[in-house]
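Lab notebook page, bench 4
Experiment: in silico fold of construct C2
Operator: M.H.
Input chain length: 147 residues
Purpose: comparison with the prior construct
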Amino acid sequence: MRARDLVSDFPTVTLDTPALEAARLLADRDLPGLIVVDDRNRPLTILPGTQVLRLAVPRYCQDDPALARVVDEAHADAFMRALGSKTVRECMPEQPRELAIAGSHATVLEMAALMARIHSPLVAVVDSGRLVGAVTLRALLDHVLAA
């Protein structure tokens, strides 16, 4: 089985997409992450949902989880507002990492190895440099476990 056999349509965002809009897309569609594309719809990187949270959750709560327990519920439920007018560009990790991109001919094992190596919940699938969709961890595991 190849990437082209497991690929499905997948939503994309750009570097200038508002981070709050990206967070809503993640939540509304129950996605593990988003594909970030350039102005020519070529994948740049994968934005895991955890990176959006990293920008929204106050740094002091990330550094010391005990502090998160002392924040009252009203304020705790509102932490996503911290995204304000920030963009996807601001959610990106400071250190670029290997791109989770595979050709449409990639095997299931190649995609699994890529996901495992770079801790990505999905792989953008390209054909002739153009994005054709994505293979999610769930789709990959569903296929492998059914075999």
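Observations: Residues 3-146 form a domain with the CBS-domain fold (CATH 3.10.580.10). The CA atoms of residues 70 and 76 lie 9 Å apart.
Next step: discuss at group meeting.
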